[in-house]
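Q: Trace token order:
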Amino acid sequence: MTDPTSVPLTAFAAVSQGGVIVYPTEAVYGLGCDPDNQQAVERLLAIKQRPVEKGLILIADNYGQLLKYVDDAKIPMDKRTDIFSSWPGAITWVMPAAKSTPRWLTGQFDSIAVRVTSHPTVKRLCQELGKPLVSTSANLSGHDTVTSIAMAKSEFGELAAFYVDEPLGGNTQPSTIKDVMTGKVFRG
């Protein structure tokens, strides 16, 4: 039997064990963790120095991974074309949250921000986990976004359990954030 302490830590193992990871997204490096692990989310928020009231984004390989967190029945049929034609990609949609979605994800809102990514690294991580990841930019609240692993390591050091040193997706701006019900753009 293998001693688990001798097994090299992977991003999957770090997230599965409640750790916070730094990983590439479409435009910037993100901080992520298991959205179902309250302690992991609280650790991520403490690292980022972000208040829980602001809510978080979930990033997934496919829409099916998000159904646990979204109240799909409340999304009008005429809005679905906008959503699904923008995915996979760098559009984050604010959708009605399922009643069971924890406040450590939604913050003060009755909605949840979600995205189906086209980034191959994130898709692979979400496939391995079988669920979405929390996705917030890898920077302290109010600081510049992190655009390299070296910057991330300088900013977070040992606070992150694992650094996924793979390339960013090539976008120059973080994802656009839109409200699915109203079309309001929160970040363009």
Notes: The longest helix spans residues 38-48. The CA atoms of residues 2 and 109 lie 45 Å apart.
